[in-house]
Write a structure and sequence with these properties.
mainly beta
Length: 197
């Protein structure tokens, strides 16, 4: 009886082995399929500009973070939501928090893991001068363009180097005795993310 069970077990393994080998040898798709999510961090340079500021258009450098979740539609297009934030501060104690939430579309122009990205959404800037309470908060709209490369290191996740540009218009900011009109900010971001498929 045991011999019959052993023979049946060996025959079952022999029959399943080709299917297992074929599945293991199948290459993983270069593009995310179905739902996916990602988190990343990097470097940002934020440049503020405003009407009448003259040469006073400072650039703030700081770490940046981004979180995204989305779903692939077909093999070339993915849609999702992306949240980003940067926390720069100046030498005179001025603290700025720039954050955004946007609808995002990724497009893979070829079979490679390279993609280009477009985003449209809302932004918020919080400006706090030393010793001032409360801080100044302004909301606005923004657009972003970017590119990245999903370097798959496992069937379930990839390392994603990326770069992007974000522009937002937030209107007027009045901090203390100084007023800034038609303020806009541009952010250039470079970093590496982790994409989970």
């Amino acid at each position: 009886m045991r011999r019959i069970h052993l023979i049946a077990f060996v025959l079952l393994l022999a029959g399943a082995a080709p299917a297992i080998a074929q599945t293991a040898s199948e290459p993983a798709s270069a593009h995310p399929a179905g739902w996916w999510g990602g988190v990343g961090g990097g470097f940002s340079a934020i440049r503020f500009a405003c009407e009448g500021c003259g040469e006073e258009q400072p650039v703030y450098e700081s770490p940046a973070a981004v979180v995204a979740v989305g779903r692939s539609i077909g093999s070339r297009v993915a849609f999702g939501v992306e949240v980003g934030a940067a926390f720069p501060s100046s030498k005179n104690g001025l603290k700025v928090t720039a954050s955004s939430i946007a609808g995002m579309a990724r497009f893979y122009p070829s079979q490679s893991p390279f993609y280009v990205k477009f985003s449209l959404g809302l932004s918020r800037v919080r400006v706090a001068l030393p010793g001032e309470t409360p801080s100044e908060i302004r909301n606005g709209t923004g657009i972003a363009f970017g590119a990245g490369y999903d370097l798959r290191v496992h069937r379930s996740f990839a390392l994603t180097p990326y770069a992007g540009w974000y522009m937002s218009a937030i209107g007027d900011i009045a901090s203390g005795d100084a007023a800034r009109h038609d303020v806009s900010w541009n952010t250039w971001t470079f970093g590496v993310g982790l994409t989970i498929f």
